[in-house]
Structure formats: structure tokens, C-alpha cells
Design a protein that fits this description.
The protein has about 300 residues and is mostly helical. The protein is built from 14 helices and two strands. The protein has a two-stranded antiparallel ribbon. Helix 1 packs across helix 14 and helix 2 crosses helix 14. The relative contact order is 0.13.
């Protein structure tokens, strides 16, 4: 018992610096931000308690309401991208008989993950450039120059151009998770499918997808969280424009805090996003478990 207590004390002492830093730089700012959501807190001024005043202001904020439409489109598009192309590529990779080619192609799809996100955004800004962009040059090369435009500079195409970033949306974390899930499926299951004549899309729909429900549920919630929180790519590419064509609530929160100095109002938006993420995560968990039981 003495040795066990000594080891526990040693481990606790070694973990203490990390826990202190986490509490100081992660948890304390988060809790402070949530509490300041109920105050009028302007840059250079002391916070003043106003209760739900910020949330009432959010209800009447026309810019925030317009940004919700863009957020809804991005949520639907990102979930569809996560549930389709990575799964298709994972199934195709698993169908290869050669382990060597599986490894080579898997590495080729995963390798872009090491590229910094900023570099990727700058690359896509060049692709969408209205004058020398690769996309417009490709359209002109195939005789479709009439379709060329400033993809990020027009309100009708800016949001869809952002959705198109990463095309064909087949690499990264989602592919790794699907591959891990498929590797966990016993080979006996696939052998049974082959004997019963269940192959191709029928096997994917009736066998693989039900067994991949935990991975699907994880990817859905990660996609929802990432979409609700992300504004960096939009800030870099369009700044929320043109007009409000690509404006989203997270970007609105950023502008309110660091451009207009309304820190309390920005904290209220952040709290609302936190509640939305929590509710969506809970619904995803409950619905996913119920679906697994039915299957």
C-alpha cells in the first residue's frame, strides 16, 4: 500500500503542471466567457450585469438571422460530404486485393493531411481567382469560358465555392475512421455475403453501413461541431462577403468581439453556439443508439 500511495503521489505531481495550465488557459477562459454572456462588456469598460439582454439583442439582430441560413446550408453540405465520398473511397480501398496497393493508395489519400490549413485555403483562393484562377482557365480550355466568373466575389457563387473546397472531399480524418471501422468487420461476414450473393452496393447498404453506425455517428457530430465553430476559412477567403453571402454566426461572434468591441454580446453568441452543439451532440447520441437497437 505504501508503494502504491507513493506512485500515486508521484503521478499526481507530474500531472499537476499540465492540469494547472489546462485550467488556466482552457477552462478558466471558457467559464469566464460563459458568465460574461450575461453582461454588457465593451472594450476598455468593466462588465455590467444585464441578465438576458444580450440574448434579446440576438433575437433582433438581422445580420445574425441571415447568417443562420448560410450555416444551415453549410451543415447539410458538410454532413453529406462526410457521409458519401470518404465512405466510397474506403470501400474501394478495402476491395483491393493487393495489400501493397492498399497501402500506397491509402497513403496518397491521407498525405494531404500534413499540409497546413492556411496553405490549403490560399491554394483554393488561387483556384477560385476571377482573373488567373485555375478553375476559370480550365473552363476556358474546354470551351466553357462563358461560365468563368469571380467565384468568391459574387454573392450567388461564394457560398457554394466554399462548400467546394477540398473536392472531391475524400481524404482526411473521415477516411481513416471509415477504414478503421471496415477493418474491424470480420472477414467471415464478407465471406458469408459472397456465398449468399450479396455484393457491391447491396453489401454496403445492408451489411457495412449497419456495422459502421458508430463511426457514422462520430463523424456526424464531429462535422456538426466543426461547422458550427469554424469561421477561419471564410474569414480568409471572403471575410463573410460579398455582402452577407458567406456570413456565419461564428464569424459574427468574431467581428462583434474584435472588430466592434462588443465582448459581452460576442460571449452570448458563443454561449448559444455551445448550447446548440451540446443539444445536437445529445440528439445524435440518443438517435444513434436507438437506430443501432432497431438494426
Amino acid at each position: 500500500m505504501s508503494r502504491r500511495r507513493t506512485s500515486i503521489v508521484i503521478v499526481a505531481l507530474m500531472l499537476a503542471p499540465t492540469l494547472v495550465l489546462l485550467a488556466l488557459f482552457n477552462y478558466y477562459p471558457a467559464v469566464l466567457g460563459l458568465s460574461r454572456a450575461f453582461t454588457r462588456w465593451e472594450t476598455g469598460e468593466a462588465p455590467q450585469w444585464i441578465g438576458v439582454g444580450n440574448f434579446v439583442a440576438m433575437w433582433h439582430d438581422e445580420f445574425l438571422r441571415l447568417s443562420l441560413r448560410n450555416l444551415f446550408i453549410l451543415l447539410i453540405a458538410n454532413v453529406l460530404k462526410t457521409l458519401t465520398m470518404p465512405l466510397l473511397v474506403a470501400e474501394l480501398l478495402m476491395s483491393l486485393r493487393s495489400p501493397r496497393w492498399q497501402y500506397i493508395l491509402r497513403t496518397a489519400f491521407i498525405l494531404p493531411m500534413v499540409v497546413p490549413g492556411m496553405v490549403t485555403m490560399l491554394l483554393w483562393s488561387f483556384i477560385y481567382d476571377g482573373s488567373v484562377g485555375l478553375l476559370n482557365q480550365l473552363l476556358e480550355a474546354v470551351g466553357m469560358g462563358a461560365l468563368a466568373r469571380s467565384w468568391l466575389g459574387e454573392s450567388g457563387t461564394a457560398l457554394w465555392a466554399i462548400i467546394g473546397i477540398g473536392f472531391p472531399w475524400a481524404g482526411g480524418l473521415a477516411l481513416l475512421i471509415y477504414l478503421a471501422g471496415l477493418n474491424q468487420i470480420s472477414g467471415d461476414v464478407w465471406d458469408s455475403c459472397q456465398v449468399d450473393g450479396v455484393s457491391g452496393l447491396r453489401r454496403v447498404w445492408y451489411v457495412d453501413l449497419p456495422l459502421l453506425l458508430p463511426q457514422v455517428r462520430l463523424l456526424v457530430i464531429l462535422t456538426l461541431i466543426g461547422t458550427l465553430q469554424d469561421f477561419g476559412s471564410i474569414l480568409i477567403l471572403t471575410g463573410g462577403g460579398p455582402g452577407l453571402a458567406t456570413h456565419v454566426p461564428a464569424l459574427h461572434m468574431y467581428f462583434q468581439a474584435f472588430r466592434f468591441g462588443h465582448l459581452g454580446y460576442a460571449a452570448a453568441i458563443g454561449l448559444t453556439l455551445f448550447v446548440a452543439i451540446f443539444v445536437l451532440s445529445l440528439l445524435n447520441l440518443l438517435l444513434g443508439r436507438r437506430l443501432e437497437r432497431l438494426i
